[in-house]
Design a protein that fits this description.
Elements (H helix, E strand, L loop, with lengths): L1 H22 L3 E4 L13 E5 L2 E8 L5 E5 H14 L2 E7 L5 E5 L4 E2 L3 E5 H7 L1 E2 H7 L2
Parallel strand pairs: 3-5
Antiparallel strand pairs: 1-2, 2-3, 4-8, 5-6, 6-9, 7-8
């Protein structure tokens, strides 16, 4: 039951970010079930006037965000194949997204990780992220 609740929470967060990007003039595509696909794909693809990014959305509460090594490897493949830079977007609180390129995550034995304080310090909030895309 908890897994379904988390999946729904994640899907809702993806839709929320999709709408925010759309409202800023991006063409946005949500890849439903991206985490269960056998092909490398991010949660969102956003393009504006020929410039695009791919985004992996996370909504985990707590002091750390851990992402499976396989998921980061898929993002790397996606980035190399598509030519679109791939970012992790971690929602901390209501409508408070922080963006960071996946390469800035810390490698652990089994995953990639970042502390909440690190993404707040080194990540970009929504408006800063949009400005960095120009």
């Amino acid at each position: 039951m908890e897994m379904m609740k988390n999946k729904k929470k994640g899907s809702n967060a993806e839709r929320e970010l999709l709408l925010e990007l759309y409202n800023k003039g991006f063409a946005v595509l949500r890849v439903a079930g991206s985490g269960s696909s056998s092909l490398p794909c991010p949660d969102l693809i956003a393009i504006k006037k020929g410039n695009g990014v791919s985004i992996e959305c996370k909504t985990k509460k707590g002091l750390y965000l851990n992402i499976k090594e396989s998921q980061i490897e898929e993002l790397k493949i996606w980035e190399e194949t598509s030519g679109l830079k791939s970012y992790i977007a971690w929602r901390l609180g209501k409508n408070k997204w922080y963006f960071l390129h996946y390469s800035l995550l810390n490698k652990t034995k089994k995953a990639y990780s970042i502390k909440k304080e690190e993404i707040i310090e080194n990540g970009k909030i929504f408006e800063e992220f949009l400005k960095s895309l120009k």
